Amino acid sequence: MNGAAADMATGSSTGPLTPARAPVLAYPAALLAFTAIPMPVATGGSIVAGSSLLAAALLLIIPALGIPRPPALRLVLVGAVTIAAFLLILANLSPVEGKASLGYWLLLASAGVMAVQMMRGLAHRAGSGSLRARLISLSVPVVFGLWLLILWECIVRGAGVPTVLLPPPSDIAVRFASSLDILWADFRQTFLKAVIAGYVMGCGSGFLVALLVDRVPFLRRGLLPVGNMVSALPIIGIAPIMVMWFGFDWPSKAAVVVVMTFFPMLVNTVSGLSAAGGMERDLMRTYAATHAQSLVKLRLPAALPFIFNALKINSTLALIGAIVAEFFGTPIVGMGFRISTEVGRMNIGMVWAEITVAAIAGSLFYGIVAMIERAFTFWHPSYRH
Amino acid sequence: MSSTAPIAEPGGGVGLSPRIFVQRIFAGKTGPVLTVLAALVILWYAGAVYLNAPQQIDRDRRAEIERSVTDFMGATWAQERPVLPAPHQVAAEIWKTTFAMNPTSKRSLVYHGWVTLSSTLTGFGIGVLLGIVLAVGIVYSRTLDRSLMPWIITSQTIPILAIAPMIVVVLGSLDVAPIFAKGTVSAYLAFFPVAVGMVKGLRSPDPMLLDLMRTYSASNWQTLVKLRLPSAMPFLFASLKVAIAISLVGAIVGELPTGARAGLGARLLAGSYYGQTVQIWSALLVAAFMAAILVTIVGFADRLVLKRMGIAE
User: Fold this and answer.
1) CA dihedral of residues A9, A15, A19, A23 (deg, nearest 10)
2) What are phi and psi of A212, to 5 degrees?
3) ipTM
4) Is A145 on the interface with B (CB under 8 A)?
5) Residue whose C-alpha is closest to residue A38's, from A58, A23, A65
6) Which of A169-173, B152-156, B200-204 has the lowest mean pLDDT?
7) Closest chain B C-alpha to A45 CA, distance in angstroms
8) How many domains are contained in chain B?
9) Are A336 and A327 in contact (CB under 8 A)?
10) Is B233 inside a domain boundary?
């Protein structure tokens, strides 16, 4: 009972306390596991695998019996059973590989449903109040991600899906670890050279042109609709032209990135510069501030959220631009080059490893920009509680 | 000039006084936009002269032709394979490959445009439907909200387009029709903005109104249909504009690396293999027109729907 009381006290502080739900999904999970017990797990599978998976099935029945009363303890039980069941399944995958039969699928479905029950319990306790609630809300998407990865692994290997179609995550991880040098070379070529150079030049020139446009109302009226329209166009199509003009190496990719990042920056900065309120502008005028002074001290700080918005949009666009531009011709290194050639050789594991690199690079890039944004626009209402 | 003109001179604004007409156009957006576009075209012509000049000088020296300045400029605008084709060359190529050609011909841009458009729209439809369904799920299920939503937001930061060639090739090897293979890429791209926008939109109703629905003892379904979905409409259309543009990009990129023979992307790739710059530029401009038209149609539907609902100003 103590556990329940502590749970109530530290539970979500945002919404009203709702009564803890019974682990309803434990019942269908138990039913699935129970049905799985007499079924063969694999055609001609070994007895060892069969008995281990039998243990997993028996484990999965426990939470439905609902032994611990306090909901927190019951969640711990559900979690422990789910993890143990998945570990048993993963450990016995190789004898089942490619010849799984009904028992295996029922067991997997049971464990999957139990994991959903675990996520429900966690999501119910998530919140933004105490440290514990925040840790729990962080854990829910992590559990979900792991759940997807494990199901992917178990389904692909159990059904024996050819690796050409969809390799299991473990294959991708092995591939990733064994070709770090190639991946690093590609990353350096595409990201450190083309993306960074293009991003800095594109955002910088977009910003400078925006300052100029802001000075001339005629241009603001004329250029802004054009800029808005261009943002909706498939600019990526200029890639072959840039490759013709600037050659196969990274400058042509940087040029594509420059064009792609220029317009979002221009449009956002121009609308950001008109974000400062009329009262504040009048105040600057009563101070007899020059255009430069009111720009630096009032209007640019007020435009920062808009500018950072463009920087965040551009961080993704830049990577896309550089990778796609490499489909049109590169020296024999680069992320886009690797993806298109390995796809051609049906070496899908390597493609996935490269996509993992792109995903990590993209999220990190975005994350860094978002962190800088937080440091510079700490005053903005969206960061205050 | 404008400051001395009386605001209401007798007969002012009546008839088509050219001066007032010009003033009005330049006070709004039309004049400045047209000026900017004209400046772009002039810049384009100048760029064509500058970029094509070395090639032309070289060729003239070999052919031992002396040209006057205007003649030289004309020559740079009429090359067979220019570095930068002049606007009228591209326009002529577009005319030749659209209106002046049988639309079923393999060289017709109408044919290629249709191939791209069909997979764009297929993918757009699937993606939008999926996005809406998922958004409803996220709004009504705390578990989905907590577990799936962070991933949807993170996935926005990932260069998803990089997966396009793989999806197309893998689905192609499964004997999926190309329209659906490319449509998958488009659907995948269109899905995210719609899901994120709809979650925001479905949550946009005032808590007071939600409470009101509760006092009516409305079911979840009734609240969804009568309150949440209608108030999500402005958000939906804002995301649809992003989604249709990105669907087109997805379809074009999906046509790039696979040896696809049809579609605007394939046209771009073929043009870049054979150095046919005029062909690249005309495919690019047709793609741009297509994007502009699609976004305009969505914008038009937006205004129509919001007007019917009485939300639009």
Assistant:
1) -100
2) -65, -45
3) 0.77
4) yes
5) A58
6) B152-156
7) 29
8) 2
9) yes
10) yes
